[in-house]
Specification:
The protein has 113 residues and is mainly α. It is built from five helices and no strands. The protein has one domain. The longest helix is centred in the N-terminal third of the chain and has 27 residues.
């Protein structure tokens, strides 16, 4: 059961629910975009205050390519995640929520610096 749910959630050819209104679908995309930009902004601000990136892969990426490349990556991720979760009932809200938890964690770390 769980493997089926994971398979349906992480597919590149998502099964769209066309009973979902365009307004709700677009709000999901906007929520993903806001969470990605929030992650970028809080990460960039934290790094400027001597915090370190906890995600080793992203830490290497930022160190090697810089914050502009990280920003571009977040925009590309927003487009990709928005496309793959368009007209899906739970996926955009789950992804946006997970990234907002990252933003909250970043803000907690910043407040402790």
């Amino acid at each position: 059961m769980i493997s089926l749910l994971l398979k349906n959630f992480f597919t590149l050819k998502p099964k769209r629910d066309y009973t979902i209104s365009n307004k709700r679908a677009y709000l999901g995309i906007i929520a993903i975009f806001i969470s990605q930009i929030g992650d970028f902004a809080s990460t960039a601000y934290g790094l400027s205050l001597t915090a370190t990136e906890a995600n080793g892969l992203m830490a290497d990426f930022i160190h090697e390519r810089g914050l502009l490349a990280f920003f571009i990556l977040k925009i590309v991720a927003s487009v990709f995640l928005g496309f793959t979760t368009y007209k899906r009932r739970i996926a955009p809200w789950l992804i946006a929520s997970l990234y907002m938890l990252v933003v909250i964690w970043n803000l907690v770390v910043i407040s402790l610096l």
